[in-house]
Amino acid sequence: MPPPKDVVKIAIQMVGAIPQLIELQQTKPLASVLKDVCDAWSLPNAERYALQYADGRQTYITESNRRDIKNGSILRLTTSPDQEADRLYFGIQSKNVDVKTDSLKKLASLSQDVTFAQEFISKNGLKQIYSIVEEGNDTGEILVHTLKAFTELMEHDFVSWDNLSTVFIKKIVSYVNMNAVDASIQQLSMSILENMVPTSRLLFELVKKEVTLDRLLTYLQVTNVQLQLKAMALLIALLLSATDTERRDMMDYLREKNIRQFIHKNIIHSSEPLGDEMAHYLYVLQSVSLNLCEHRMKTSMDPYSQEQRDLLHSLRQTAFESESEAPAGNFSTERRRSLCAKEFRKLGFMNNSNPAEDLRRAPPGLLALDNMVYFSRNTPNAYSRFVLENSSREDKHECPFARSSIQLTLILCEILHVGEPCSETAQAFYPMFFGQDHFFEELFCICIQLVNKTWKEMRATQEDFNKVMQVVREQITRTLALKPTSLELFKTRVNALNYSEILKLRQTERLHQEETLAVPVLELREKLKPELLELIRQQRLLHLCEGTLFRKISSRRRQDKLWYCRLSPNHKVLHYGDVEEGVQSPPIESLLEKIPVADMKMLLVGKECPHTKEKSSGKQNKDVLELAFSIVHDVEEYCLNFIAPTRYEFCLWTDGLNVLLGKEMTSERTQTDLDVLLSMELKLQLLDLENISIPDSPPPIPKPPSNLNFCYDFSHAEQ
């Protein structure tokens, strides 16, 4: 008798017949199983039939996926994939419009299944899809189903995008460029082009030439959220596939056309809430734009470049023009050189005789020079005030403008991740980025004045330079964390966070730390830990019961396919299944796939997960590895693979799954939550001891008295 894991009890349905309840032996060939099922219903030609799931995506059962069948699954006897592919192949060529429409609709649905897709493509079915599009006789519903079927078939990577004809591609492009076309056709067309662009240089150039940036900007101004999303997706695909020079030219053109205004007005401040997908695209656009600074950031100053030397000298001339222009002609070369060196020293260059040496360090390289020049030209009054104010101070208290600018540029590059590759999943963009032209330079102008303000507040000397810059970094980081919506708001908040406020914050954090390090407090912490850890466990399980929306990510692109997973209220079954865009919290009954918690064997994270190994490449994105986890169930080769939308969700799900497996919670979020809860509980319990110092060791127990005759005699009191 085979072991229990090789036998599953299932139901098989067929239209017009009484369902069969069978014990499926996983070791028995699928053809033999089908023969037995057909014989029970007296059906000839068992090879013309196949089994598929009755619910959910209705995937065909094959030898490769049969092990995914669970106890209690409901299957349906249906036409085999090759028979169905034959029927639809001829159906989509029918002269009868109704037959053709129904066939294409069915094709679009079945093409999600890899087995059917393989059969249909092997019959040269894609050629018929090409013909329908290229001939251009069909529009409306027929064209929608055709494009959807094509998208699903290409998703399986059986056919190279390079096989597409120029006529087909231009027809797809025409749907994007035409105004009098149904919005769903335009969405599907842009989705097809988005998938096509990253696959080859030739296709990128063709799409870039045929779909203008102006056309995509038009879509960003419409009220249809899905059209905006698809246009943004195509724009991002073009930017990421372009060379550095092309990307710079495209971004310059988009800036000229005021793309930030369209995004700020029609997307960020739209009446519709911003979805995760759009947030990701805005993050990528922000990242691509900031990364245009990377070349200058990594380029050291060339002391022999006349252009760069002119920029450097323009800083001196703007600051000290009135002092040096009149008598300059009367000075000898040596005297003029000495005067320049003195002025460069006042500007805050370390090497005043050869200031170019200060800019040899890369990063921040020439980007620091660009920022200083931008500040001097666009806010000349603030620039002159900064330089002249510090020139008149005592030497030891002057704030060095150039040295501060170089270090500040480096700090801003680190905070804004300039030069780092785009994440596949991140959604953290700054709304104020799209509210301002020349964002990086304008942010620098605000922050360099902050440096001077903080320098004065700290009464700093040259020896305190690094301390001042650490405070400035903290001021910028804390303010950015508040997600200000404009640079003006950022300026207001960062200036309000002065040095005394930073000291208060640091002192509060330090006192909290010192307070919690006393020996009795540490002992109390340990005593409280078990109860609070149980509270965290309950919270994690509650979060799993509420469920989370996950995205499917392929190696080719960030997909817009969604699936939902949640734990049953009794904590015994994980329910999951595909959902449509816009569905926030589907009912548990609609999630048709199940994994009993009792069947879960192990939790894998990061590089251990099978879906990260499949996708592994030389340029594997670090963020995907940090968000990936898998549940191993039944036997080790069967996994349910996840990529969490955020690090927060990753921590809560891995903790919750570890609780279900009876293991310790290991995420960094557990420690953070535990620290917060312990801090709150300790403060409550120590409330009566406020302003009372707690000794490190308990007070000594006094010696017992010499006698115990100290009982009060009430009888004497009564007399």
From TrEMBL:
GO BP: actin filament organization; apoptotic process; cell motility; phagocytosis
Pfam families for this protein:
ELMO_ARM, ELMO_CED12, PH_12
Q: What would be an example GO MF term here?
A: SH3 domain binding
Q: Gene3D superfamilies from the xrefs?
A: 6.10.250.810, Leucine-rich Repeat Variant (1.25.10.10), Pleckstrin-homology domain (PH domain)/Phosphotyrosine-binding domain (PTB) (2.30.29.30)
Q: Which SUPFAM superfamilies match?
A: ARM repeat (SSF48371), PH domain-like (SSF50729)
Q: Which UniProt keywords apply?
A: Apoptosis, Phagocytosis, SH3-binding
Give every ELMO domain span. Answer: 307-480
> What superkingdom does the record give?
Eukaryota
Among InterPro entries, the record links this protein to: ARM-like, ARM-type_fold, ELMO_ARM, ELMO_dom, ELMO_domain-containing, PH-like_dom_sf, PH_domain
Q: What does this protein do?
A: Involved in cytoskeletal rearrangements required for phagocytosis of apoptotic cells and cell motility. Acts in association with DOCK1 and CRK. Was initially proposed to be required in complex with DOCK1 to activate Rac Rho small GTPases. May enhance the guanine nucleotide exchange factor (GEF) activity of DOCK1.
Q: What is the protein named?
A: ELMO3 protein
Origin species: Grantiella picta
